[in-house]
Amino acid sequence: MADTDALVKAHGVTVRYGPKVAVDDVDFEVYPGEVMGLIGPNGAGKTSLVECIEGLRRASAGSITVAGLDPVADRAKLARVLGVQLQDSVYPTRIKVFEICDLFASFYPDAEDPEVLLEEFQLSDKRKATITKLSGGQRQRLSLVLALLGKPEVVFLDELTNGLDPQSRRSVWKGLKKRNKAGLTIVLTSHYMDEVTNLCDRVSVLIDGKVVVVDTVPGLLATYGSQAVANVEDASGEASLEDVYLYLAGADAVPADQTEGA
Ligand SMILES: Nc1ncnc2c1ncn2[C@@H]1O[C@H](COP(=O)(O)OP(=O)(O)OP(=O)(O)O)[C@@H](O)[C@H]1O
């Protein structure tokens, strides 16, 4: 697919914090309707990159557009297109679940019905609870409800299912797959390789601020599977995405254009 078709286009993005280069000349493209996974070790630069794309942080260098919009200059317009999972520290402290849903819904001309979303993500019985009284997993699900309320074209989900019980994870995956089938583009960061395998059409591996490879899960397994399995001490059977990830994270960066079959 040509780059011009991409919904998210980030080119040469660099993020510096003083002398620290957190994101180093990264190209990152996401096409309409795909689920893109962004994986990498703690501190690899995932959040810094995603925050630039969301318009929450200005890149030190590089260019970014989302649906043709500049995330910083066109932030108000971008809010109609982009759904972002928020950290709960940004919520007003005493607000109740249904109140924050109604507030967020009021920002959009054609929002989803909050009650339907609360039901879908098993929060209906918590609708009158204040946010501070929710468990960590319930807050995670509320942040997803709020990200989806405005019927975005693309949603960015940061460690979406951290702390969720297996049942909740499955219902979150199901809800996302349903929306993806209906056209929602999804970018997610995750440390759970089963989640990435289950949900993502393509995966970008970010290590030390650089994207070392972008491929489908089967593509990654085909290219790196045998080396990855050889890298596992008590290897038995087929390589998993986790084996490949551990192999890549432990190996020196492999430029995408030098990998076999890339
Ligand atoms: N505001 C900041 N000021 C200074 N350094 C920062 C700041 N934010 C992040 N960093 C540093 O930049 C690097 C990348 O951090 P970032 O949070 O983007 O990584 P990450 O891949 O999202 O990590 P994690 O998986 O732990 O969430 C880290 O070394 C981090 O310490």
From TrEMBL:
Coiled-coil portions: none
One Gene Ontology cellular component annotation held by this UniProt entry: plasma membrane
Pfam families: ABC_tran
UniProt key word Transit peptide: no
GO biological process, one term: response to antibiotic
Entries under Gene3D superfamilies matching the protein: P-loop containing nucleotide triphosphate hydrolases
Transmembrane regions listed in the UniProt entry: none
One MF annotation (Gene Ontology) recorded for this entry: ATP hydrolysis activity
Compartments in which it is found: Cell membrane
PROSITE patterns: ABC_TRANSPORTER_1, ABC_TRANSPORTER_2
CDD domains: ABC_DR_subfamily_A
Bilayer topology annotation: Peripheral membrane protein
Domain ABC transporter residues, every copy: 8-233
Keyword annotations from UniProtKB, A to Z: Antibiotic resistance, ATP-binding, Nucleotide-binding, Transport
Record-given protein name: ABC transporter ATP-binding protein
